[in-house]
Write a structure and sequence with these properties.
By secondary structure, this protein is mainly alpha-helical. 85% of the residues lie in helices and 0% in strands. The longest helix is centred in the middle third of the chain and has 30 residues. The radius of gyration is 17 Å and the shape is globular.
Length: 178
Amino acid sequence: LGAGFMLLEVGIIHRIIVFVGSPGAAVSVVLGSILFSSGLGSRASDSSTLPDRKRILVALLGLTLVCGGYIFGLETILSKLYGLPIWGRSLSAAMILLPVGFFMGWFFPVGLRATIKRHEGLVPWAIGVNGFASVLGSLIMLPIGMIFGFRVVFVLALVIYWIAGLVYLSGMVGKSGP
């Protein structure tokens, strides 16, 4: 999940820098918006009465729809908002990014609960692997984006989320025993 999260986050930062017009403002807007909304997504996931498997499906479908919208419609939306002052572009970018963070936030709590059920001692290891994957995701994003385009970065991030979701849904995560 860490790699997918960072691919999306850093890829969005690179795209929003041009729109907002200031690298510092773009980083602040993207990080603030995605971290805030992923926290809301984590909270929504935890308070949902859906079984964990359905939570993963909701998150996968929501993230797919949002990223599909970004892949095919983000340029059009942003082009209509270029005339706004920097604070207006920043606020617009933050609002546009809330849904992606919201759905990304659903995955980690469900995966962590599954890890606790299977082997509580693996929780620190899972958090460490996720952190390591986050670093790798942020490092590989730029060359992939420069060579293949940032749409490919979004697609790759979605593929990572789908692989993680399908592993969870296949029952490989959260079962007790060997």
